[in-house]
């Protein structure tokens, strides 16, 4: 797989994970925790896929700066980190909604 394809894999999977997290939050707000849980499980799958690609890129670089850093790589990392943060915060918010229902 070419570097550009790998980077796009991070962006696409991280974005899908984040979108599913927000869908889960909307379901939790409506009191539908079964759907919220399903969405969060699916979000975790996409987060793992994005993280796997990131790990492969880090391993290939071997900490030696072999991989040329580009703006799209930074963009991919931003997507991954914001999706991870969204998942963590939304997980907590869903639990708050769950305890109130």
Write a brief caption for the model.
With 101 residues, the protein is mainly alpha-helical. It is built from three helices and no strands.
| Spatial separation of the terminal alpha carbons | 47 Å
Number of strands: 0
Radius of gyration equals 16 Å
**Oligomer category:** single chain
Number of helices: 3
Uncertain regions spanning at least 5 consecutive residues: none
* Biggest sheet descriptor: none
SSE string, helix = H, strand = E? HHH
Shape: elongated
Structural class: mainly alpha
Q: Which bin fits the share of residues in helices?
A: over 70%
Percentage of residues in DSSP E strands: under 5%
Summed over residues and divided by their number, the pLDDT gives a mean of 93
Description of the molecule:
It is a single chain. The model has no long low-confidence stretch (mean pLDDT 93). α1 (3-29) packs antiparallel against α2 (33-61) and α2 runs antiparallel to α3. Helices cover 85% and strands 0% of the residues. The radius of gyration is 16 Å and the shape is elongated. It has 101 residues and is mostly helical. It has helices at 3-29, 33-61, 71-100. It is built from 3 helices and no strands.
What descriptors fit this protein?
0% strand; 101 residues; elongated; 3 helices; mainly alpha
Compile the SSE list and pairings.
Elements lengths: L2 H27 L3 H29 L9 H30 L1
Helix pairs in contact: 1-2, 1-3, 2-3
């Amino acid at each position: 797989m070419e570097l550009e394809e790998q980077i796009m894999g991070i962006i696409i999977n991280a974005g899908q994970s984040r979108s599913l997290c927000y869908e889960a939050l909307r379901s939790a707000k409506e009191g539908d925790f079964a759907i919220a849980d399903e969405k969060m499980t699916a979000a975790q799958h996409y987060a793992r896929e994005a993280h796997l690609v990131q790990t492969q890129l880090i391993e290939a670089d071997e900490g030696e700066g072999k991989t040329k850093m580009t703006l799209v790589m930074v963009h991919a990392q931003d997507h991954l980190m914001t999706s991870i943060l969204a998942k963590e915060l939304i997980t907590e918010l869903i639990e708050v909604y769950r305890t109130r229902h």
